[in-house]
Design brief:
Layout lengths: L4 H4 L2 H18 L7 H48 L6 H19 L3 H17 L5 H13 L1 H11 L5 H20 L6 H25 L4 H4 L3 H8 L7
Helix pairs in contact: 2-9, 3-7, 3-8, 3-9, 4-5, 5-6, 8-9
């Protein structure tokens, strides 16, 4: 899966871009005094926004932590499988190692559907093998099947993104909160306009971080693949 350009931009650049944008709006937009009812509505909406986004943000952070553990466990399992091929005939050993290499590369490059097929190909190859190393290949098959638990948990966590209905509610509450903050009359002082821009930037950054966590393009999420990356780069001699 190719990452979108917006997902590749660093969070620090997002902060600068959003701050300049909101500072511009804070200076130009007309201000309005709110009555008690409007301020109550603003307070309720702000509370709901924080109440709704906080557990979703925590869940996505937990999802990445779980992926770290799952991928590390799978890297250990793959390392043990490839290590078991060292006594096989060269042609068979190279064939299996190349299949493992393709599977790992597809995982690292976010081609998870292709990686799933690669793993199924490994199982099919071991099932269909009828050569003189049948016993060793059957042992490999047992390890591949045992690793399916990791594969299942991995697939579940990959699919555990923020759902569209959750995005809809968050964007609605976010838009209302942002509108109130930008048009609230805080006086003519530039310092309070600066604070307004900072507050709007902070609220927006929460959504940007959530997008990056959900799509696994956050810096912390990219570190998930380090054990597999090390395994592939070292030609199965080392794991992270």
């Amino acid at each position: 899966m190719q990452e979108l350009l917006l997902k590749k931009i660093r969070l620090s650049w997002y902060f600068v871009i959003f701050f300049v944008f909101y500072a511009f709006l804070a200076v130009l937009l007309p201000r309005q005094q709110f009555e008690g009812g409007a301020l109550t509505l603003f307070s309720v909406n702000s509370f709901l926004y924080g109440f709704y986004i906080s557990p979703i943000l925590s869940a996505q952070k937990g999802r990445i932590e779980d992926l770290h553990k799952i991928v590390r466990e799978e890297a250990n399992a793959l390392f043990a499988m490839v290590l078991a091929t060292k006594n096989l005939p060269e042609e068979l050993r190279n064939k299996l190692q190349e299949m493992f290499r393709i599977y790992i590369r597809n995982n690292i490059n976010y081609r998870h559907a292709a990686a799933e097929k690669d793993y199924e190909s490994l199982i099919t190859f071991c099932l269909d093998y009828k050569g003189p190393e049948k016993k060793a290949v059957d042992s490999m098959l047992d390890k591949l099947v045992a690793n399916q638990k990791n594969r299942t948990m991995f697939s579940m966590q990959i699919a555990n993104k923020v759902f569209s209905n959750e995005w809809m509610i968050m964007l609605m509450l976010f838009s209302i909160t942002l509108t109130f903050i930008l048009i609230l009359d805080t006086g003519s002082g530039l310092i309070l306009r600066f604070v307004t821009a900072l507050l709007c930037t902070g609220l927006t950054m929460l959504l940007v971080i959530l997008v990056k966590l959900s799509t696994l393009t956050h810096k912390k999420a990219k570190q998930v693949w380090l054990p597999l990356q090390k395994l592939a780069d070292s030609h199965f001699y080392r794991i992270d």
